Amino acid sequence: MSFDRRKFVKAASIAALGGVVSPPLKLFGGVVVDGQSAEAVPEAVSGCIGCECSPVAPPTNATRWAMVIDLKTCREHEDCTICMDACHKTHNVPDVDNPKEQMKWIWKEHFGHAFHEADHPYLEEHVKHSNALLMCNHCNNPPCVSVCPTNATFKREKDGLVMMDWHRCIGCRYCIAACPYGSRSFNYTEPKKYFAEKGIQIEPDFPTRTRGVVEKCTFCEERLARGLWPACVDACPHNALVFGDLDNPDDPVRCLLAKHFTIRRKPALGTEPEIYYIV
Amino acid sequence: MIEKALQGGKGYWTLIVILLAVIGVGVLAYLKQFSEGLTVTGLSRDVSWGLYIAQFTFLVGVAASAVMVVLPYYLHNYKMFGKLTILGEFLAIGACIMCMTFIFVDMGQPFRIGNVFLYPSPHSMMFWDTVVLFGYLLLNILISRVAMSSENKGVAPPKWIKPFIILSIPWAISIHTVTAFLYSGLAARPFWMTAVLAPRFLASAFASGPALLIILCLILKRFTKFDAGREPIQKLGVIVAYAMALNIFLILMEIFTAVYSGIPEHIDHFKYMFVGLQDAEGVMVTNLVPWMWTSSVLAVFSLSLLLVTKLRQNETILGIAAVAVFASLWIDKGMGMIVAGFTPNPTHVVVPYTPTLIESLITLAIWGMGALIVTILYKVALTLRKQVQRVPYRA
User: Taking the alpha carbons of B74, B76, B79, B82 in that order, is the dihedral positive or negative?
Assistant: First the structure.
């Protein structure tokens, strides 16, 4: 399966040319679909699009953000790094060569490493050799928040985002010890130096961090505040990432979760990770 | 009182100068770390705590172990430990300061450390650990200061100090319990997430701390006029024997649970420590293996010496056993415990950690600083005691 909106848009546009569907249609985050137009192109429609639930922009009143990642689609584009590049560019995440000090907000990990409990020697070949896209799970019950001795990392009341105050963080790295997903990175050295070294432009819209603090994916709270989708979601040309409000039964993420078998990383730990994977 | 630290023989000053030199080198090393960041250490995104936090953990135990002389003396009126209590308390002060320094040098943003108090977070075990450690340091400074000054005046310590002394006993237990809670509450790290961690920490503390005290007493006896007495040192030997036996027992419990259940994420850490584990490229990583076996052999060796009464009663053999206990437990807690908890990492990948030279020099300097503090405090205590010429009378 694939909830490839681009394919849909293409089909819809062709249909539109034929006068079947009327505009506006917008790219994801969203294709504005009314019931009629969706019905008009039944072949091309898949995933949540059939549910009339693909909003143009992220909801403003979400109470629990979550993401569904379609690893099936990801697998079709093995070497694709568009979402990762977009995220790291948007957030000035330095490109560090030393694997021990790498900064990762969103990255690919061997499937067996990411889902150790689901791994076995006779796993479906293409799954076995595939990679899973990982990032902060924005746990509903985040252990990193419990351990932080300064509340520099905290869960935002209104929508459950696990946030960081880089000005308060003392760099004790307790949160790294507590995170079961390896989602946190520590600035072992001055991050800005990597931009100079590699001639990469620093994005003026987002703060750079200082040496000695921990950082991680923020689910793009700064973009959400401006009514934009998270950078990775926005960038994915294959629509493999769907983001939305888990508390809203009509949201695309809920729709996808209702329609597909999904798994989460280490659910037994009770952290309630908010990233769901279609494998 | 403190001026007594400025009067000493050649040996005393040589020791002071050596310790200051070690500290000086470490300060330079720290300046490098301070200007370049923790990149100068062997730490990584996978093993994010190493030598510093491990030393901290080990030394909290040494600090807590003062209770092993304080408790028999004050609660059981075991007079024999009268001469030792001040040494135990001073050792606790030195160890507490070392612990705090190790935490400080481990911080990515050391100057923000005040944030722990500016934004208190009772849900964090690190917050509580800071609170209990500071409290314990203050308690020991207060108690030893009052006791010394009364002794100096040849009067009995004031009555009001007694509740503080009694409080220091459970407080000592609490510092190491809370330190164990730092680790044992983490679902992410199965190696640490064991209810037996706090008891095990206490057992190893009550072996390593008194073992260090035995070593210090024997050194003092040899190089100064201070003799703690045969009996109290022997008694400490018995305490070390029991605590070490309990510690080994608890480690075996851990190994049984992991090995018999066979759950990979529990057993893998032990494999990494004792036989090695493959990294992502299939290369066997065995960097902890020789250390852990050394620790195990030393543990069995020292316990054998301690358990045989005849051997233990020989002060030289007791000294050897004390050194072996201390070395064994230092490796176990000061190297194995923390690093093995991070290896393999949460994605089951082995990333080896080796401390760098800079990191080792800073570590050595903090040990040097602790030794300097303890040396000066012991010097003051023993000089005063010599002058007073009185059997110490406390409480």
Answer: negative
Contact A189, B43 (CB under 8 A): no
Residue B39 and residue A213: Cβ atoms within 8 Å?
no
Q: C-alpha distances in angstroms, B12 versus B6, B22, B226, B347, B385?
A: 10, 16, 14, 52, 17
Residue of A nearest to B338 (CA): A177
Does residue B382 register a pLDDT over 90? no
Output the DSSP codes for B134-197. Answer: HHHHHHHHHHHHHHHHHHHHTSPPPTTHHHHHHHHHHHHHHHHHHHHHHHHT-TT-TTT--TTH
In tens, the pLDDT along A218-261 reads: 999 999 999 999 999 999 999 999 999 999 998 999 999 999 99
Residues of chain B neighbouring A146 (CB-CB closer than 8 A):
123-124
From chain A, the residues in CB contact with B345 under 8 A are 182
pLDDT, tens digit, 9 for 90 and up, residues B297-340: 999 999 999 999 999 999 999 999 999 999 999 999 998 999 99
- Phi and psi for A273 in degrees, rounded to 5? -60, 145
Return the residue of A nearest to B103 by Cα. A172
Query: Which value does ipTM take for this structure?
Result: 0.92
* DSSP-assigned letters across all residues of B24-91: HHHHHHHHHHHHH-GGGSS--SSS---HHHHHHHHHHHHHHTTHHHHHHHHHS--GGGHHHHHHHHHH
Identify all chain A residues contacting B340, using CB atoms and an 8 Å cutoff. none
Burial of B389 (0-12, 13-18, 19+ CB in 10 A): exposed
What angle (nearest 5°) sits at the alpha carbon of residue B213, between those of residues B291 and B355? 30
Report all structural domains of chain B as residue ranges with CATH numbers, in order of start. Answer: 2-388 (1.20.1630.10)
A170–B107 C-beta distance less than 8 A: yes
Which string of DSSP letters, residue by residue, matches B289-354?
HHHHHHHHHHHHHHHHHHHSHHHHHSHHHHHHHHHHHHHHHHHIIIIIHHHHHHSS-TTS------
B107, B112, B187: residue with CB nearest A180:
B187
Which residue reads 């750079």 in tokens? A208
Predicted confidence band at A1 (pLDDT cuts at 50, 70, 90)? Answer: very low
What is the C-alpha end-to-end distance of chain A, expressed in Å? 10
User: Which of B115, B192, B267, B285 best probes binding to A when mutated, by most A CB atoms within 10 angstroms?
Assistant: B115
Q: For A102, name the nearest residue in chain B, comparing CA atoms only.
A: B45
Q: Which domains, from first to last, does chain A contain? A: 5-51 (no CATH), 65-278 (3.30.70.20)
Query: How far is the alpha carbon of B66 from chain A, nearest alpha carbon, in Å?
Result: 27
Cβ neighbours for A111, distance < 8 A, ≥ 6 positions apart: A71, A118, A119, A123, A127, A128, A129, A130, A131, A132
**In the A/B pair of chains, how many CB contacts fall below 8 A?**
136
pLDDT per residue as tens digits for the range A117-128:
888 999 999 899
Nearest to B135 by CA among B103, B98, B96: B96
